[in-house]
Structure formats: C-alpha cells, structure tokens
Amino acid sequence: MAHLKLENVTNSQITNEILEKTQKGxxxxxxxxxxxxxxxxxxxxxxxxxxxxxxxxGFSPVEQEVVFLSAAYENNCEYCMAAHSFIGxxxxxxxxxxxxxxxxxxxxxxxxxxxxxxxxxxxxxxxGIVTQAEVDEFLAAGYSETHVLGIIxxxxxxxxxxxxxxxxxxxLDSVFAGRxxxx
Length: 183
Prior knowledge:
By secondary structure, the chain is mainly alpha-helical. It has one domain (13-179): AhpD-like (Up-down Bundle). It has 9 helices and no strands. It has helices at residues 13-26, 31-36, 40-56, 61-74, 78-90, 96-104, 111-125, 132-140, 145-168. The mean pLDDT is 94.
C-alpha cells in the first residue's frame, strides 16, 4: 500500500483556521486532521461535509455513528473505526452491542439500526449500486427515501477521511487507543 510522507508541509490559512477551531472544540487536534490539513481543499471539504451531515442528514447521533462505522468498516479504515467507536461510546452513546457488532462484521441486534448498517455497507462496497430489494428492505425498517440520500452523504464524508488515512497513515491518537481495530 502506498503512503505519503508529509514532511515540511506548510498549512494554508484555511487549514490553520480549521485546526484552531478543532482545538477549541475538542481540546486537541486529531492526527487525521493534521495529515488531511496538508491540502486545504481536502480538510475544508471534509469538515464542512462532516458538520453538514451531523446537522442535516435526518439521522439521530446514534444512527450517524452507525453510518460512519459501517462505511469505515467496508473501507477497512482502522483509524476511523477506532475514532468513531470512541465517539459512539463516549459522546453519542451508541449501545456497545451495536458498535461491537459493526466492528466484528456481525448482525446488529436492533432491527432498524441493522437495516441502516446493512444498506450503508452495501452502498459503500458496491460504489452506490444496490438493488431495489435492498432499498425496499431499508424503507420497510422505518426509514424514508430521503434517508437513503443521507447515507450517501455520510459515505462521502467517510470516503474522504478513509482514503486520506489509507494514504497518509496518521498515528492513532491516544484518546482513541482503547478502541484500536483491525479487520
């Protein structure tokens, strides 16, 4: 697998503003942001899309984590699996059995969240090409057609971070270390 060596990278004003805002909001800057910040367009698009997904996707915070974890699982992103497992545990209060099922590639015990994870994983793995039967199964679980589009927004956010992490290999932050993950 290819890896970039991002040494002596000068951050742009946009990157610096995003990193300062992140430091104020979280109390630290995740290493992923530092590597993504080597390109202002990437960090700007990622943080804007991430914030928009959180605010506008139509999903609860628990459902948002299910989308992020399911996409990261399919994309085999160790960094995002650890980070979003931590976020799910500590911030959005995703039930441990849900997070652990996704991390282990197993069936989620909650029917509705299971349908969400299943369609997210299929859309991710199949690059957006799914059957009508898959969509109908998702809709039958209590979601709307608008939610299908929300999943696509979440996958887009995770694709940016997952691909960036694959190529830049950021060191996992100590805060996420308790949720290290390997597929």
